[in-house]
Each structure stands twice: as C-alpha cells, then as structure tokens.
Design brief:
It catalyses: a peptidoglycan chain = a peptidoglycan chain with N-acetyl-1,6-anhydromuramyl-[peptide] at the reducing end + a peptidoglycan chain with N-acetylglucosamine at the non-reducing end. This protein is mainly alpha-helical. The chain folds into two domains: 65 residues, Dna Ligase, domain 1 (2-Layer Sandwich); 207 residues, no CATH class. Helices cover 51% and strands 8% of the residues. The longest helix is centred in the first third of the chain and has 51 residues. The model has no long low-confidence stretch (mean pLDDT 87).
Length: 372
C-alpha cells in the first residue's frame, strides 16, 4: 500500500470519528435537554401541587369537623389525622410546611375546624388550643317560623329583601337543584299540588355562620337546608321503624312547634295527635287554621274554623299537606318519641300550661275551668 493510499484512509477514519463525535454530542445534548424539560415539568408540577395543597380544601365550606388530637401527638400523626378528616389536602405537605416555618408545640385536645381554613389558621389553632376561623357574619333563625317570617328576618339582617328570598325559595329551578343535592330529604312527597310552599319547614332553625364577606342568597338558604338534612338523617332508623316519611315527620313536628309554649309538654301533645290519627279524628289544631288563612294573629275565631282549605285540620282529617313552620330539635324528638298516653284532647290556659283529657266531657270541664 503506497503512501497516498494510507493518507486517504487516515483522512476517512478522521472524518468518521468526527461524525461519531458529533453524533455522540447530539445524543448527549438531546438527553440533557430532555432531562432539563422533564426536570422543569416535574418542578412546575410540584410547585402547583404544593401551592394547591397549601390552599383550603373548600374555601366556601362553613361546616365544622370535629378533630381529636391525642396527648403526645407528633406533627406526622397530626398531619395524618387532618388529612383523613379532609381538613388538609396532603399530610406530607403540611408536615414539611410546619417544619419550614419552624412550627411546633401543638396542643392536644378537641377542635372544630372547617375545610375553609388556611394552613396558617390551622397551625395557629393547634398551637393555642383555639379556633381562629372567625365568621364575617351570623344569622339566627328561631324555631317556629314560616318561610315568609324567615324571609323577613333575612331582610332585617342581610342586604337581601323578603321578596328576593321568597322568589328564590319558590323558584322551580332552585327547588329542583335542592332536590338533586338532598334527595333523601326533599322527596316526591313535596309534589303535592295542595302544598303552599315546597320548602316550608325545610329550613332548619339555628344560628348560621358565614365566612365570605357577601354570601349569596342561595348559599344562605342552602346552608339551612343542608342543616335540616344533617339533623333529619339522625332519625333515619326510627323513621323506618315508624314507616313515616321525612315529609310527614317534618309536617308532624311543625304542628308541635306551632302549638308549643315555653311550658309545653311536646311529647304529650304528640301523643294526642297520634291518638287522634289512629282513631280517625281530625287533629283540630289552631295553627293549621292560621296557616290556611295566611295570617299571624293571637286568637282563632269560630268563623275561622270553617274555612275550606287543605291545611285546615278542623275540616280535613290527617296531617296537612306539608309543614306549617320550621321545627326545632325538641319538636322533632317529640314527633319521633311521643309519650304513651290515652289523651285525645288538650288546651293551654292563660299561663301557657297545658291540660289534657281522655274524654270530651272532661275536656269541656277544662275549658270551663281554665278558659272561660
């Protein structure tokens, strides 16, 4: 092989090596670039995940959740408890955040926290033994109010009017939405054409806390319905045993609520109503007459008892088509667990004390003694 040929072979080998080096460089560059892209994606994903995990689980939630922190709990175990109760989104993020902030010395005890609380609010609560989620406003709805009375109370304590409230609670769209959200509470029983207001009796009497600056009217009303759902669920087993629907339950309890005075024995009145229903007697309760008339007055006249209306229990046997007011816990308890008595009659004297009788002649004696 001559010298010229050897030179050519050497040049060819050098060119091939250069190509190999370029190829290797390209591969290394591509791998490095891909690694950078993947690292960037992971970093961005981690950033958004951690940022999301540090935000409240549900900033609109007002429902409190009971949390038990045992003595000797570590940050790790507390984080797990909070995640299981759905108060935080990620236990690890909570743990690392508290360590990053150098937070410690959490107190054992019982807490009522909300899903709307921030991580910092939760930490502050656990360190001091107090809940630092303060509502921006509260609204108290007493027992025994009708929808229009609730509307008036909302108008007095919020920026919404009674008309706006009544328009909402009678809206077919809103009622349909509530039916879909609370199907065990608002059932087909409310479809009765004789019912005045579908949601009458379905707004639970309680004090409600709102954390948003300006809660919508829908949020205010739904919170009341959600609370009714929560309370009524506690009676599910007993209702099945009594073969009583939720609608009948709320209707019955509303009668007790409207008959109640500060000294009323609800369980005994409930027994009177049940005894009358069993014997086929009309309930003959004055509050249903007032509801039929659509009036709020202190005294029912004899002419009022003659009004022809589905809610007038002097004229129609059985329960009225629906609740006539919102019933509280005492009335719900009495409706589900009445006293065992033979009474068919009762009346309240001028001091609000009830007097019961099994026979009509004894009832008339009570009338002469306590009313006339």
């Amino acid at each position: 092989m001559d010298q010229e040929t050897q030179k050519k072979e050497m040049l060819n080998k050098m060119k091939e090596r250069k190509k190999e080096v370029k190829t290797v460089r390209k591969i290394v560059f591509i791998i490095a670039f891909a690694f950078i892209i993947v690292a960037a994606i992971i970093s961005i994903s981690m950033y958004f995940y951690v940022s999301g995990a540090l935000k409240p689980v549900d900033s609109e939630s007002n429902k409190t959740v009971k949390i038990e922190v045992p003595i000797g709990s570590t940050i790790d175990s507390i984080a797990v408890i909070l995640e299981k109760k759905n108060i935080i989104k990620d236990a690890k993020v909570f743990k690392y955040y508290t360590k990053f902030k150098n937070e410690s010395e959490f107190q054992a005890g019982t807490y009522k926290l909300t899903k709307a609380m921030t991580i910092d609010e939760i930490i502050k609560s656990l360190k001091t033994g107090k809940v630092y989620r303060q509502p921006t406003s509260t609204l108290t709805i007493p027992e025994g109010l009708t929808l229009d009375q609730i509307g008036a109370r909302i108008a007095k304590n919020t920026t919404y009017t009674t008309d706006e409230f009544m328009t909402l609670v009678t809206s077919k769209e809103f009622v349909k939405n509530m039916k879909s959200k609370y199907p065990e509470l608002i059932t087909k029983k409310v479809n009765n054409k004789d019912i005045r207001y579908v949601l009458e009796g379905y707004l639970y009497p309680s004090t409600y806390s709102f954390f948003a600056e300006d809660p919508t009217l829908e949020e205010i009303v739904e919170q009341m319905i959600a609370q009714t759902n929560t309370v009524v669920t506690q009676y599910s087993v007993q209702l099945k045993e009594k073969k009583m629907s939720v609608h009948e339950f709320l209707t019955f309890a509303s009668l007790l609520e409207r008959e109640a005075t500060a000294k009323t024995d609800r369980e005994t009145i409930a027994s009177v109503f049940y005894n009358r229903l069993e014997t086929g007697m009309p309930l003959q309760t004055d509050p249903t007459v007032l509801y039929a008339l659509g009036e709020h007055k202190d005294r029912v006249l004899y002419k009022d008892l003659e009004v022809k209306h589905p809610y007038n229990t002097y004229k129609v046997k059985g329960l009225p088509p629906g609740p006539i007011a919102n019933a509280g816990k005492e009335s719900l308890d009495a409706a589900i667990s009445p006293a065992d008595t033979p009474y068919l009659y009762f009346l309240a004297d001028k001091n609000g004390i009830n007097h019961f009788a099994e026979k009509y002649e004894d009832h008339l004696k009570n009338v002469d003694k306590y009313i006339k």
